[in-house]
Amino acid sequence: MDYMPVEPLRALQLHRLQWTVKYAYERVPLFRKRCEERGVRPEHIKTLADIKLLPFSKKTDLRDEYPMGLRGAPMDEIVRFHCSSGTTGKPICIPNTMQDIEVWKNGAMRCLTMYGIRAGDVLQVAYGYGLFTGGLGLHYGGEGLGCAVLPISGGNTERQIMLMRDLGVTAIACTPSYFLQGVDFRRDTKLRHGIFGAEPWTDEMRETIERETGIVAHDIYGLTEISGPGVAGACPHRTGLHIWEDHFYPEIIDPDTLEPLPDGEVGELVFTTISRCGTPMIRYRTRDLTRLRTEKCPCGRTMRVMDRISARSDDMLIIHGVNVFPGQIEAGLLRVPEVAPHYQIVLESTDTLDRFEIKVEVTDEAFSDDIRHMENLRKRVLDAVKSIIGLTPKISLVEPNTLPRSEGKIKRVIDNRKK
Ligand code: DLL
């Protein structure tokens, strides 16, 4: 499917969109009610552009309709639930049918194939197993390709490394922050591939990982609401991430006006699932910020490419009146070679201007008792960050291995400001 010519691909998408809209209209009361309010009926969807007639859906819908108000398929077709906790309140719950699991597995397999992973590879799945989709998503994808899968889940880093060596692991799937726990995963191992996602990470982070460990760092994207890891992935040309748009139809919208944006413009990523039944999601607002590219990818895949997700709209910080994304800070920090890829952004209210501090670890080689050396390094780090965000944070250089590590998605921002 990856190389399907564009014309039949668009015809397939339209066919599947029409099917999905009818399916959801007949089965999901909230969707039907919103369509009725707008005077839209399934037969009004005559072209792909007509998708703009349909109502959006959001995470709060899943929360308000908890546990299963957006379910499409009858209960005897549901084979698995996945949930995502979010930061506040009730989790969201996504019922999946067997077909949904197949669609998801297909996306994960296509990503792994694109990364050059094959039968014969040994895949260590260090994403969490359970309600989170990371573990089972890569597990099914790896097994589907005939890889030998090691379902180790997160945690117990010593055991991870022992088994990696002893079983000849060639590929690991985990969050980039877990991979960077500070332990040398690569030493005496056959590891060649990292399959990284589930949290925003920058090109600078990818370069740091590849330089420090000698593996190839692949980007995999996905979200519980739409299926799991394997909605999109980066090909070796690194033009961005190919979206498996025969199953997940993408749009970019202006998050303020909600109007669709043309290809090439940055906005909020919106997905419509066009072959899922358990929870058909229509025009789901992901909060992820990116753009769809117009150039053809040299790999020959026709599936549209989006820029890597380096920010979510809800991650945006307003500091001293300026909009700042954590990824911008990461990009600045990692331009300084003596800086290790471990940092924390701390914000506190004070009587005057809010305190804005960046704590960052220095590499073993660069850490020193020589105050002049450290002060000089601190100034270079500050200049690198300041040149991107235009603000002057307090930079605190800290000793290697002192900032908190994570086994899953890392929390880099500590915002203690009074709201
Ligand atoms: O994180 C699914 C996943 C598991 C993806 C393993 C990749 C690997 P959720 O917990 O529902 O699902 O979180 C989805 O994580 O909307 C993005 O904000 C972020 N995210 C996922 N992959 C990437 C990525 C899983 N490659 C949310 N780059 C999404 C940047 C990512 N952000």
Task: Report the average pLDDT across residues.
Answer: 95
* Strand tally: 20
What top-tier CATH class of the largest domain fits best? Alpha Beta
CATH topology of the largest domain: Rossmann fold
> Which hetero compounds are present in the coordinates?
5'-O-[hydroxy(phenylacetyl)phosphoryl]adenosine
Q: What's the name of the CATH homologous superfamily of the largest domain?
A: ANL, N-terminal domain
Cα-based radius of gyration, to the nearest Å: 22 Å
How many domain units? 2
Distance between the termini: 48 Å
Show unreliable segments. none
**SSE order in H/E notation?**
HHHEEHEHEHEHEHEEEEEEEEEEHEEHEE
Helix content: 25-40%
Q: Strand content of the residues, in percent? A: 15-25%
The helix/strand class is alpha/beta
Total helical segments: 10
Sheet with the most strands: spatial strand order: 4-3-5-6-7-8-9-13
Shape: globular
Can you describe this structure?
With 419 residues, the protein is α/β, with parallel strands linked by helices. It has ten helices and 20 strands. α1 (6-27) packs across α2 (29-38) and α4 packs across α5. The chain has helices at residues 6-27, 29-38, 59-64, 98-114, 133-145, 157-166, 176-179, 203-213, 326-333, 371-389; strands at residues 78-84, 92-97, 122-125, 148-150, 171-174, 193-197, 216-222, 229-234, 241-243, 248-253, 267-273, 284-290, 305-306, 311-312, 317-319, 322-324, 339-348, 355-362, 394-398, 413-416. The protein has two domains: 1-313, ANL, N-terminal domain (Rossmann fold); 317-415, 2-Layer Sandwich (GMP Synthetase, Chain A, domain 3). β15 and β16 (322-324) form a beta hairpin. It is 29% helix and 24% strand. Bound molecules: 5'-O-[hydroxy(phenylacetyl)phosphoryl]adenosine. Residues 84, 127, 132-134, 137, 197-200, 219-224, 228-229, 286, 288, 309, 312 line the site of 5'-O-[hydroxy(phenylacetyl)phosphoryl]adenosine.
